[in-house]
Amino acid sequence: MARVVVFGATSAIAAEVAVMHAARGDRLHLVGRSAAKLAQLVDRCRAVAKEPVTFVAADLADLEAMEGLVASCIEALGSIDTAFVAHGDLFDQLASEATFSVAEASLRLNFLSPVALVVPLANHFERQRGGRLGVITSVAGDRGRPRNYTYGAAKGGLGLYLQGVRSRLYGAGVTVTTLKLGPVDTPMTATHTKNAVFAQPKPVAEGILRAMDARKAEVYVPGYWALIMFVVRNTPEALFQKLAFLSGR
Predict the structure, then answer these.
(1) Residue 95: its pLDDT value, please?
(2) How many domains does the chain have?
């Protein structure tokens, strides 16, 4: 039995991860913004759980509150063995180009908010000399593209930050897994045209659990994104800008 905390638990992917943890007998503490949605997810988890499932509603955009939030999660569980950070929002790219306040909001939620959680979580794991931390980033962070470069910059910065945390905590026996997700058919992408590369939440959640159980450092979920992003990352910029399917809106 592991003591697991899920931040952003009511997102479609995180909810599936939470239910899977409950089903295999882990002790769960769920964190999300909406108390009503959390209550519904707790009912799903308790239907299959062998251990207690607790929850707290919190605004993960409130950066100054994150250290206290993590402390309350540690108190609720006694200790944390596994932490999963799974929140963010795409925002409107065009709006982020037109108005700095929108760009700032995207960077705060997608980069600074996860960092505000990772700082106290990393310190906790370092003190107890063990633990697993998984954080969702995005394939959008691998290369700046006109369609989503504000969001991509936040996720790319988060991935770089996690590289440093991973090396820092290596000697303490702590695993830090960067989960680079491609597009998933969730409410966050409801307005996006779906195509063959869109994944479904449950298989993505299964891939996340496999990666964290295997103590992977960085992993693309689904795995086919590793090949796609190899091409995207390594296409020369002069060619990249001429290929609308890569550089278009």
Answers:
(1) 97
(2) 1
- Residue 144: how many CA atoms within 13 Å on its side-chain side? 6
Q: Where do we find the tokens 């908010």?
A: 113
Residue 139 vs residues 18, 36, 158: alpha-carbon distances, Å: 23, 31, 12
Quickly list DSSP for 62-118.
Answer: -GGGHHHHHHHHHHHHSS-SEEEE-------HHHHHH-HHHHHHHHIIIIIHHHHHH
Query: Own/partner pairs for 230-236, CB < 8 Å, 24+ apart?
Result: 232/139, 232/142, 232/143, 233/142, 233/143
In which residue ranges of the chain is pLDDT below 50? none
The pLDDT, as a whole number, for residue 79 is 97
Domain that holds residue 222: 3-247
Q: What's the distance, CA 128 to chain centroid?
A: 23
Category of 130 on φ-ψ map: left (φ > 0), alpha (ψ -120 to 50) or beta? left
Q: Rounded to 5 degrees, what angle do the CA atoms 87, 149, 118 make?
A: 35
What count of residues does the chain have?
A: 249
| CATH code of residue 212 | 3.40.50.720
CA distance 78 to 229: 40
- The verdict on pTM exceeding 0.85 is yes
Angstrom distance (rounded) from CA 7 to CA 118? 11
